[in-house]
Amino acid sequence: MMHHYLNKERENGFSLVELLVVIAIIGVLSSVIFVSTQDARREARDTERISDVRQFKIALENYFDDQIPQAYPPTQSGNAWPNLATGGYMPVMHDESTPTIPPYVYANVVISGSPSYCLGVTLEDLSERPASHEEGCLAGTYATLNANYAVRP
């Protein structure tokens, strides 16, 4: 008669070590997927911000063309949305900014007697910043804007 602990035949099922290895592999794969989706979300937010800036720029130019004398909207707490939204130049835009990312910023100024503005936003990934970025827009007169992507007329 043979005792059970001497029996070398393997029973059906998985050992504890095999289960722990599988759980560890699943954990590593899920963390890799999580990081890649976070990158995609960041890129999507930046793309949306750049698109919003383009739409805002079009609305500013339409506003400018309709004014006599021609002028851009006045700066109100760093933005011009109230003037553009109530004038029907664009809908009220949502502010999807995260707590660490400031919203869109706008400054209306006159340079050498000509109306001008600087419109900026903070992008999360500067490697994707478009060529339309105006580096000079963030210097000098507009240095108070807290943005890393900016456009002007």
Keywords for this entry:
alpha+beta; three-stranded antiparallel beta sheet; 37% helix
Summarize the structure.
The chain has 153 residues and is an alpha+beta fold.
Overview of this protein structure:
With 153 residues, the chain is an alpha+beta fold. The chain is built from 2 helices and 3 strands. It has helices spanning 16-66, 81-86; strands spanning 105-111, 114-121, 149-151. A hairpin with a 2-residue loop joins strand 1 (105-111) and strand 2. The longest helix has 51 residues, at 16-66. It is elongated, with a radius of gyration of 28 Å.
- The coarse overall form would be elongated
Distance from first to last alpha carbon: 95 Å
Report the count of strand segments.
3
Question: Largest beta sheet, briefly?
Answer: 3 strands, antiparallel
Label the structural class. alpha+beta
Percent helix = 25-40%
Radius of gyration, in Å, reads: 28 Å
Helix count from the secondary structure assignment:
2
* Mean pLDDT over the full residue set: 78
| Poorly predicted tracts of residues | none
Strand content: 5-15%
Give me the side-by-side strand order of the main sheet.
Answer: 1-2-3
Element order: H for helix, E for strand? HHEEE
**Could you state the oligomeric state of the chains shown?**
single chain
List the helices and strands and how they pair.
Elements (H helix, E strand, L loop, with lengths): L15 H51 L14 H6 L18 E7 L2 E8 L27 E3 L2
Antiparallel strand pairs: 1-2, 2-3
